[in-house]
Specification:
- The protein is α/β, with parallel strands linked by helices and 141 residues long.
- It has a single domain, classed as Rossmann fold.
- A 5-stranded parallel beta sheet has the order 3-2-1-4-5.
- α1 crosses α3.
């Protein structure tokens, strides 16, 4: 079974945050399990770096270096899954369950992980709980 890494986990792994060492250690322990992300993670990752730059926690040089680290991370064998029409449709069904409090992007992560029978790995407790409620295997780090 694959482990699908959501954006929160990838951003923390590749930027300098409090939990970065623990997340990197966890990723290194997972190397016997196929790791995957989606093209949606690629989009959200870039947006997260832009936010960090706008608020002043990341300068231009560091942003460029972090984008390079992302490319290198993916090139180490992390599979990048395509986002397809079916994922958007399933994400809409997930998001319709209003009590779960899912944001659109999180519903999309769940739909992609679900369609690939992957375990969603995240730092987001709400996302992990929603995944479990929807029958998507999820791990909260």
């Amino acid at each position: 079974m694959n482990s699908y890494l959501d954006t929160s986990l990838v951003v923390t792994a590749l930027t300098n945050e409090q939990r970065t060492p623990a997340v990197l250690a966890w990723i290194n322990r997972q190397r016997s399990i196929p790791l995957c992300i989606s093209e949606w993670v690629t989009t959200e990752f870039s947006a997260a770096l832009s936010i960090k730059q706008r608020v002043g926690t990341l300068d231009s040089a560091s942003r460029a270096a972090t984008l390079q680290k992302f490319k290198e991370f993916v090139s180490t064998g992390v599979e990048v899954l395509a986002v397809e029409t079916q994922h958007f449709r399933e994400a809409a069904l997930f998001a319709n369950q209003y009590a779960l409090g899912l944001r659109a992007g999180d519903a999309l992560h769940l739909a992609i992980a679900s369609s690939h029978a992957a375990t969603l790995c995240t730092l987001d407790e709400r996302l992990a709980n929603a995944g479990l409620a929807l029958g998507v295997k999820a791990v909260l780090l």
